[in-house]
Design goal:
The structure holds two protein chains of two kinds.
Chain A lengths: L7 E10 L7 E8 L4 E6 L5 H9 L8 E9 L2 E2 L7 E4 L12 H11 L4 H14 L15 H13 L5 E5 L7 H18 L2 E5 L3 H4 L5 E5 L5 E5 L1 H14 L21 E12 L9 E5 L3 E3 L3 E5 L6 H8 L7 E6 L1 H4 L11 H5 L2 E4 L12 H11 L4 H14 L15 H13 L5 E5 L7 H16 L3 E5 L3 H7 L2 E4 L1
Helix pairs in contact in A: 2-3, 2-4, 3-4, 4-5, 11-12, 11-13
Chain B lengths: L9 H15 L5 H18 L3 H25 L6 E5 L2 E4 H25 L4 H10 L5 H12 L1 H17 L11 H25 L18 H23 L9
Helix pairs in contact in B: 1-4, 1-9, 2-4, 2-9, 3-4, 5-6, 7-8
Chain lengths: 483, 252
C-alpha cells in the first residue's frame, strides 16, 4: 500500500479548552520520527486524548479552545493536515458511519476526493489488511465490537494516512476483541510502516508493538520519554499509583472470606430474552442453567460480548420478565413481597435487589451527586436525618465529597462508575447485580470497586456480576457461570 | 419474488410519488381519485408487485382510508338531503360524496407511495439526493449518519425505563417522569452525536476538497419512465375528471 510515514513535532505546544482557565496541556516538546511507534501514557485527565485529537487535526477552532506553540504533522500545522493521520476512537458504536461495510470503508476516500475507480481497490485492500472478510454489502450493525473496530481501522487505512492514532481502541472490547484488534493493527504496521501513536491505560496490550513510551503528568506536561523498558522501570510504580495498568504492578486484591449463608434467590429452567417491546416476539432467547444465589457470595456470569449476559442479569434482577421458567426469591430475601422479583413493586425491589447498569448515565436521575445518592433512601421514606447520614457516609467512602454539588453527567468515567455503585448501595439491597462494573476503568478505580464489593459480601449480602474481566473474577467470584 | 421497483433510483420514486400526489390534491371528486386508483392497481398487477408484501405493507393505508371517509361522512360540510343527524354530526348528500372522494384519494396517493418505497434503502436515497438532486452533501450525509443512531436511542430509552424501576421510583408518575427521561436521552444523544462528528471529521468529512462518490447514482431510462408514469397517471385522472364534469378545484 503506497503510504509515506509522517513525522510529528510539538514545540512548546499547549491547549486550553474553551470555558476552562487551566491549560489542559502545556509546554509540550517532542519529535516523533516517521515510522516510530509510541505508547502515550498518563493518569486520567492528563489530556492524552486531547493531544491525540490535536495530532489528527480534529481539535476544533477557536470556539472549542485556544492553542499555544506549534504542532506540526508532516511539516504542516496539524489543523491543516487532516488526512495525513487517521484517528481510531474508543467506542465501536459511535464510529460506524454508514449502513454497509463497503460504503463505510469508502467514506474517508470519498471525503478526500479520491477518484471512483481507485476507491474500491483501496477498500478491498484495507479490509484485507485488517482481516475483515465479509461481503461489502454486509450490514455494519451485524458486526461484533471487535469487528466494528477493525472496520473503523480499515476506513482509516483506506485513506492511506502516514500516521495511525489510536485512542483506547480496545477499552470496550471483550478479550477476543482485544486480541483481534491488536493483531490487525500489528499486521497493518508491518505492511505500511506508518507512524503509530496509541493512548491506552492497559500497557500490556500494546507493549509488544511499540518502541517508545511518552508519559504525560496529571498537569499535562511530558514527564518521561524513552524506551518502554526504561520508562516502565523508572516510572512504573508512579504510573501504577496514578491508575495506569502497568505489568508487574497488579492492583491490591482483598483477602477472601468463605462464609456462604442462606440461599436468597434461585432459578428454575429459566429462558431469558427480549424484544423491542413487550408486544413483539423476543429478538433472541437463551436457556440459563439453574443456579442458587447465596448470602456472602459473588456469582460471576462470563462470556463474550453479545452472549446475552446483560439480559440474564436484568432478568435475575427483576427488571425483565423471563420468557419461560422462573426466578424465585426465597423467604430470606422476599419478606412480605411475592415469590417472583418481576412482580415486585419498584420500591420493594430497592431493599432486595439493586442493579448497577453498564452505562452509569442510564441510571442518573438528579442534578447533583448528593441528590442522586438520596433517591433510594427517600423512596424508602427514611427520615431526613437518616437520609443525610447514609448519603454523607457514601460520599466519604467513595471520595465523592468534593463533588457533592456537581452534576452527575459532568463527572469523569471513574467517578460516574463509583457514583452509580454508591446510589444503589444507598438503599442497602441484599443482592447487588452489576453489569460490566470494571469496563474501561483505570487500576485505581478497579481497586476501590473490588474492595468495596468484597466488604459488601462480607456483610452477608450477595453479588451477581456480568463480566469478562478475568482479574475481577479471580479476585471476587465464588461461582462462575459461563455462557 | 423480486420487486419490480427495487432497482429504480429512490429519487425517481420520490419524484413520481410527489407528482402524482400534486395532481390529485388539486381536486376533490371521486372520478379523478377512482381513475388514478384503477390505473395504479392495473400497473401493480402488470408489473407483478408481490401480493403478500403488497397487502402487508399497504394495510395501514387500507385502514386509514375508510376511517378518513367516515370522519368526513359525519362531519363534512352538509349539503343536499340530510339523512341522519346527531349533535354536530350530519350525513347528507354532500358529505357522502365528499367521503367517497376523500377515501379514494387517500388510497390513490397512499398506495403508490408505499409500493414505491417498499424497497428504498436510506443509503441509496442519500446518494440520489446528493448526486442527482444536488442537495448539499454535508447535510445529506450528516442526516444519513444520524439516522443510524436512532436504533441506539431506542435501546437507550428502554434502559432509562428499566433503570427507573431499579432506582425505586418506577411505581407512580409514569407520565410525570417522561420529561426527565427525555432530558436524559437528549444528553446521551448529544454525547453520541459529538462522538460521531469527531469520527466523521477524522475521516476527512467537511474538508475543503471536493467530494467524490464511490457509487454513481444513475438516473437513466428506467428512472425517467417511473417519473413519467407517475405524471401520466395524475394527468389522466385530471383529464377524465374534467371531461366528465366532475372536476372540483380545491381552491374556490
Amino acid at each position: 500500500m503506497p503510504l509515506h510515514p509522517v513525522g510529528i513535532r510539538a514545540t512548546e505546544w499547549g491547549w486550553r479548552h474553551a470555558s476552562r482557565s487551566r491549560w489542559a496541556l502545556h509546554g509540550l516538546d517532542f519529535v516523533i520520527e516517521p515510522g516510530e511507534r509510541v505508547l502515550l501514557l498518563g493518569a486520567s485527565g492528563s489530556g492524552k486524548s486531547t493531544l491525540l485529537q490535536a495530532m489528527a487535526g480534529v481539535l476544533g477552532g477557536s470556539e472549542e479552545g485556544e492553542a499555544a506553540g506549534e504542532l506540526l504533522v508532516n511539516g504542516l500545522p496539524a489543523t491543516q493536515s487532516r488526512g495525513h493521520s487517521g484517528l481510531l476512537l474508543q467506542d465501536p458504536d459511535s464510529q460506524v458511519i454508514l449502513a454497509r461495510v463497503g460504503d463505510d470503508v469508502a467514506f474517508g476516500c470519498e471525503n478526500l476526493g479520491v477518484p471512483r475507480e481507485q476507491i474500491w481497490p483501496r477498500v478491498q485492500s484495507a479490509l484485507d489488511a485488517v482481516g475483515l472478510r465479509v461481503p461489502l454489502d454486509r450490514s455494519t450493525s451485524e458486526l461484533s465490537g471487535g469487528q466494528k473496530q477493525r472496520l473503523a481501522l480499515a476506513g482509516i487505512l483506506a485513506m492511506q494516512p502516514g500516521a495511525l492514532l489510536l485512542d483506547e481502541p480496545t477499552a470496550n472490547l471483550d478479550p477476543t476483541g482485544v486480541t483481534e484488534v491488536r493483531e490487525a493493527v500489528g499486521c497493518v504496521l508491518e505492511r505500511t510502516g506508518a507512524t503509530f501513536v496509541v493512548v491506552e491505560h492497559r500497557v500490556e496490550v500494546w507493549l509488544p508493538l511499540v518502541n517508545r513510551v511518552i508519559v504525560l503528568s496529571a498537569e499535562g506536561s511530558v514527564i518521561a520519554d524513552g524506551r518502554p523498558d526504561d520508562v516502565l522501570r523508572t516510572r512504573g510504580a508512579e504510573l501504577a499509583a496514578s491508575g495506569v495498568w502497568v505489568p508487574g504492578f497488579p492492583p491490591a486484591v482483598p483477602s477472601r472470606s468463605a462464609a456462604a449463608g442462606a440461599t436468597l434467590l434461585t432459578t428454575s429452567e429459566l429462558t431469558v430474552g427480549r424484544g423491542l417491546s413487550r408486544r413483539q416476539p423476543p429478538t433472541f432467547a437463551r436457556a440459563f442453567p439453574d443456579v442458587g444465589i447465596r448470602e456472602g457470595t459473588t456469582t460471576a456470569l462470563t462470556g463474550a460480548n453479545g452472549s446475552g449476559k446483560t439480559t440474564i442479569g436484568l432478568t435475575l434482577a427483576g427488571l425483565l420478565p423471563p420468557i419461560a421458567g422462573e426466578v424465585l426469591a426465597r423467604e430470606e430475601l422476599r419478606g412480605h413481597a411475592g415469590k417472583h422479583p418481576i412482580g415486585w413493586k419498584s420500591r420493594e425491589l430497592l431493599t432486595r435487589i439493586g442493579t448497577v447498569f453498564q452505562e452509569p448515565e442510564h441510571q442518573f436521575l438528579r442534578a447533583t451527586v448528593r441528590d442522586e445518592l438520596a433517591v433510594g433512601p427517600r423512596a424508602l421514606k427514611l427520615t431526613n436525618l437518616e437520609v443525610a447520614a447514609r448519603v454523607d457516609e457514601l460520599l466519604e467512602r467513595l471520595r465523592l465529597s468534593a463533588l457533592a454539588q456537581a452534576n452527575p453527567f459532568t463527572l469523569s468515567g471513574g467517578e460516574k462508575r463509583r457514583l452509580s455503585v454508591a446510589t444503589v448501595l444507598a438503599s442497602r439491597p441484599r443482592i447487588l447485580v452489576l453489569d460490566e462494573p470494571t469496563f474501561g476503568q483505570d487500576s485505581r478505580t478497579w481497586e476501590e470497586l473490588v474492595a468495596l464489593l468484597s466488604e459488601y459480601t462480607r456483610d452477608q449480602n450477595a453479588i451477581i456480576a456480568m463480566t469478562h474481566d478475568q482479574l475481577f473474577v479471580d479476585a471476587l467470584a465464588d461461582e462462575v457461570v459461563r455462557l | 419474488m423480486r420487486h419490480p421497483f427495487s432497482r429504480v433510483n429512490p429519487v425517481a420514486k420520490l419524484g413520481a410519488a410527489l407528482l402524482l400526489a400534486a395532481c390529485l390534491v388539486l381536486t376533490i371528486d371521486w372520478v379523478s381519485a377512482g381513475t388514478a386508483l384503477l390505473l395504479e392497481l392495473a400497473a401493480f398487477a402488470f408489473l407483478g408487485v408481490p401480493a403478500r408484501q403488497f397487502w402487508l405493507r399497504t394495510l395501514p393505508v387500507w385502514v386509514a382510508a375508510p376511517l378518513t371517509g367516515i370522519t368526513i361522512l359525519l362531519y363534512g360540510r352538509p349539503s343536499g338531503t340530510v339523512y341522519w343527524e346527531f349533535l354536530a354530526a350530519h350525513v347528507s348528500d354532500g358529505s357522502i360524496n365528499l367521503a367517497i372522494a376523500t377515501a379514494l384519494r387517500v388510497l390513490a396517493i397512499g398506495l403508490p407511495a408505499v409500493v414505491l418505497f417498499m424497497t428504498v434503502d436510506a443509503t441509496d436515497l442519500a446518494d440520489g439526493l446528493a448526486q442527482v438532486w444536488r442537495l448539499p452533501s454535508r447535510f445529506v450525509l450528516g442526516a444519513l449518519a444520524a439516522f443510524r443512531l436512532v436504533g441506539l436511542f431506542l435501546e437507550d430509552w428502554r434502559f432509562l425505563e428499566l433503570a427507573r424501576r431499579a432506582r425505586g421510583v418506577g411505581d407512580t408518575g409514569r407520565f410525570r417522569r417522561i420529561p426527565g427521561q427525555v432530558f436524559a436521552l437528549l444528553v446521551l444523544a448529544i454525547r453520541r452525536g459529538s462522538k460521531l462528528a469527531i469520527a466523521m471529521e477524522a475521516r476527512g468529512f467537511g474538508g475543503s476538497v471536493p467530494r467524490t462518490w464511490a457509487r454513481e447514482s444513475r438516473f437513466g431510462p428506467g428512472e425517467w419512465l417511473t417519473v413519467i408514469a407517475g405524471l401520466m397517471v395524475g394527468m389522466t385522472a385530471i383529464i377524465v375528471a374534467v371531461t366528465t364534469g366532475q372536476w372540483n378545484f380545491i381552491v374556490g
